[in-house]
User: What shape does this take?
Amino acid sequence: MFLDGLDDLDKKIVQLLIQNARMSYSDIGQKVGISRVAVKMRVQALEKKGIIEEYTTIINPQKISGAVSCYFEIETMPDQLMDVARILEENDMITQIYRVTGKSKLHVHAVASSNEEMEDLIYNTMDKLPGVTQCSCNVIFSRIKDIKGLRL
Assistant: This one.
């Protein structure tokens, strides 16, 4: 299991925070049987160890009128891969960049406010990346399942 390094109490706390990161220390304490202060100390220790990295709000772009969400599969010349990644990192429309298996490949997610903005990203950024040997774009029509983070 992914959480083998944690004791049972920390596992329960992490599971509750995955379900609802806004749950109060008091509510967590009631569910796991310890005080609010003890929960806070354990959560802070998990954060300090880097087990809990961040708390965030996730926006569904498909619920925003006109937003377009796409995945790009980009293959580059081996010596250009990291240059391409750095260029993409600087673009605000790019939300995720993963290096994946295969010949120097990147898996990239982008969200634009409109079709026109996505087209601009493709023509003025993607098409001009150095050393790209292949690039495909897949528009996301609907979200069927989307799990964030580690599931226990």
